[in-house]
Amino acid sequence: MRVLKAKEMAFADENTIKLTGIPSLVLMENAGRTASEIVLKHYLDKNNFVVVAGSGNNGGDGIVIARYLLRKGKNVKVFILSDSKSKLSEDNRKNLEIFESFGGSVLLTSKEKLAKLRNAVKEADVVIDAIFGTGFNPPVKGYREKALEIINRYAKAVVSVDIPSGLSTDTGKVEGTFVKADLTVTFAYPKLAHILYPACEYCGDVYVIDISIDNNYLKEIKRFILTPENIKIPERKKNSHKYTYGHTLIIGGSAGKTGAVIMASKASTAAGSGLTTAVIPASLDPILENVLIEEMTIPVDDKNGFFGKKAGKEILEIIKKGKFTSVVAGMGMSVTENTISLVENLLKVRLPLVLDADGINNLVLIDDFKKKLLKRKYPTVLTPHVGEMSRLTGLSTKEISDNMEDIAKEFAKETNTYIVLKSSRTVIATPEGEVFYSVRGNEGMATAGTGDVLAGILGTLIYRLGVKEGVKTGVFLHGLSGDLAKEDIDVESMKATDLIRYIPKAYQFLKNYKPVFTNFYRKLGEV
Hints:
2 domains; 19 helices; ten-stranded mixed beta sheet
């Protein structure tokens, strides 16, 4: 499923009307009719509805919703934030005429009539916000801002049409006054504000409605949400053996940080690696031997619980002699002169490579590390959180948080790497310029070790599925495991190891998944 910006949606809308030949009134009818179904699904027992409409086509969508609610026997009042019908868009005005012909009640509302709007909102069971659409640029000014404040203060429940009025479509940032919705119905495709924090928190549940927009005009858009339909699941054959499914090498750990490499190793096995081996400083080996059962360990040169000077060369020899299919490095490794050299050596390895956590923190201390990444002939996956991305790019964490997609995409192209940029939303960027957003996962995953689990999953799947598909599936599987864990475990108590326990359930869920599209709409983020 693509994710659009305002101009991209406007382009597709305009060309669907002008070139494909579907009249704008038909698109508006499709939007309003299906949106009314969703409203009634959620608020069937409510009787009093108020539609607050703007003068543009977003207001027209709201008026169509009002007509369908009226036809279902609901009490509906429409307030249009304009002082003259002549200022309404053509489609808005036409649908207003149709609504009135059905006996609908309409009040053109200027600054002087806000008291009537306030009283109606107070009495309503549900308010439909159809004031500003995806083309609006904040902030809201004048009496319309007062109207938004009335909705936020007095409405019992709010449904926003396309986007909560006052939010910017193309960003997760919020400014000024905006509607805080309980539910949003958006058309054709989700927009960035629906999935990025903090804006998405004010959208409530988001439903995406098919209104017959021609997607042929969007083929150049390479921005997607991960869904079960666009990920692959690894398969097992009866006629196979453990080496069929790869041998993942996990490199990490230091004194006080053995848990990181343990979790990555166990996650690799749970994700389906035929074999998993952990390479650690020698003095840590008894700890891992005590905990890892299915996984193997290889101890290397140690200096007081950290990787020693000879560890880098030893690891290259281990890889050269072994039958490994991918390498994951960095979890709990710490940053020392020896680990910097170790990571630099790993850049020469002729295998797919995942660098996580201290793998990245060591990487940035290597001279010309971007050029060395670019020269690698085998796939490289970097899994930074915002702070680590700041170290990779030299940009502030605020700059990155405000513009995750473009920064991740630029860095991926510049270094020929796959970037998994982790925050409250995870952004995947490929060297080819594709971007994938994950909307799976939850607040319970904001705890130590969840990144180590993801790294182990990715190490397995980039071999099993190929690097791009492996990264997509790995990120989705990780978030889904967290969501399934949340069903049984309170988010306050969720641990990274819980995610590992729920990987099998996540696989089972995906293998049994059958897409269900009810009446041309689907709930965003719902598997």
